[in-house]
Amino acid sequence: MAGNDKELSWRLVPSTCVYCGTGCGVLLEVTGDRLTGTLPQKDHPVSRGALCIKGWSVHEFVHSPRRLTKPMIRKDGELVETDWDTALQAAADGLAGARDGYGPDSVGFFASARCTNEENYLLQKLARVAVGTNNVDHCARL
């Protein structure tokens, strides 16, 4: 067979849509090592083969050239690449500084529809337990 077998391979990978908390079943089309499409999972107990318009395009953000793929911090007004430990420490220091300087309700958290329910749960626990604020919102508006 001519060419790279990995480039020619195509498969469907069952997953859960990331856009809201409903948990619709999707089949992600993978060609080679890239996500190339989304199909509804017909036998899924929640969505039973249905997807909203966001669900049909759930794969599109993964390979976007605008997507950040490495940690970045701002130095002298410019975003620069850094390692994960440095980026996480900068975020922790910034949150602690705002909380300590202006009170816990000066901080707000905005959850993402592109995260799992479990990840969004952890974000609200961080907000409420570690920072001490109930200022949590979410962007999934259907």
Secondary structure elements and their pairing?
Elements: H1 5-8, E1 10-16, E2 25-31, E3 34-40, H2 53-56, E4 72-75, E5 78-81, H3 84-102, E6 109-111, H4 117-131, E7 136-138
Parallel strand pairs: 6-7
Antiparallel strand pairs: 1-2, 2-3, 4-5
- Taking Cα atoms only, what radius of gyration do you get, to the nearest Å? 19 Å
How far apart are the termini?
Answer: 47 Å
Following the backbone from N to C, one meets helices and strands in this order, namely HEEEHEEHEHE
Helix share, percent: 25-40%
Q: Overall 3D geometry?
A: flat
Structural class: alpha+beta
The count of β-strands is 7
Q: Low-confidence stretches at least 5 residues in length (pLDDT < 50)?
A: none
Strand order of the largest sheet: 1-2-3
Number of domain units:
2
In terms of quaternary structure, the protein is single chain
Our count of helices gives 4
Sheet of most strands:
3 strands, antiparallel
On the 0 to 100 scale, the average pLDDT is: 90
Beta-strand level of the residues, as a percent range? Answer: 15-25%
What does this structure look like?
This protein is an alpha+beta fold and 142 residues long. It has helices spanning 5-8, 53-56, 84-102, 117-131; strands spanning 10-16, 25-31, 34-40, 72-75, 78-81, 109-111, 136-138. The chain has a 3-stranded antiparallel β-sheet with strand order 1-2-3. It has a two-stranded antiparallel ribbon with strand order 4-5. Strands 6-7 form a two-stranded parallel ribbon. The N and C termini lie far apart (47 Å). The model has no long low-confidence stretch (mean pLDDT 90).
